[in-house]
Predict the structure.
Amino acid sequence: DAKTTQPPSMDCAEGRAANLPCNHSTISGNEYVYWYRQIHSQGPQYIIHGLKNNETNEMASLIITEDRKSSTLILPHATLRDTAVYYCIVRVADAGGTSYGKLTFGQGTILTVHP
Amino acid sequence: DVKVTQSSRYLVKRTGEKVFLECVQDMDHENMFWYRQDPGLGLRLIYFSYDVKMKEKGDIPEGYSVSREKKERFSLILESASTNQTSMYLCASSGQGGGYTFGSGTRLTVV
């Protein structure tokens, strides 16, 4: 699986958009970008994933650059409950987005949302 | 929503004990995983399973074994618990669609 690079920490004001970057310059054609987050003392939570088109769901938006070498997770209106570690993971999946095998977690980005 | 349930939230065991950590998922997922998480080391994969009675070693399988007799249940076994196995243990499952669902974790302390 391709390696990812994320900033170790970021801050965001409550109510503002949080934009979390991820670099995955060695991504290959059949690798998807997945985002998870982990709130303190809980298991990681799936947020969103995508291949090359931008994606949006009730939690967040995922913007993938045209060359697919980087992506940005956007939390449009961050709340205090969004304070967590955010993990960007790249891995192979089939045409339906189903991936198999292990997820490899890096250190992620610690997002702190301030009042 | 997929639910992954781990049998205990907190557990304290003595050195040398055999420890069973149980994980059950309710969405008929084929794949199940056991991770441990330690400060500064992140999440590390111990074992995973693609199907009933199938198992694969992850990155740190030493000192652990697993059992998957039924599709919905994946057990992690510490054959002889040691203090360096004190950790947060996380179970996860995945199926069609790609997203992995994690349990809430079991914080194991070996004394």
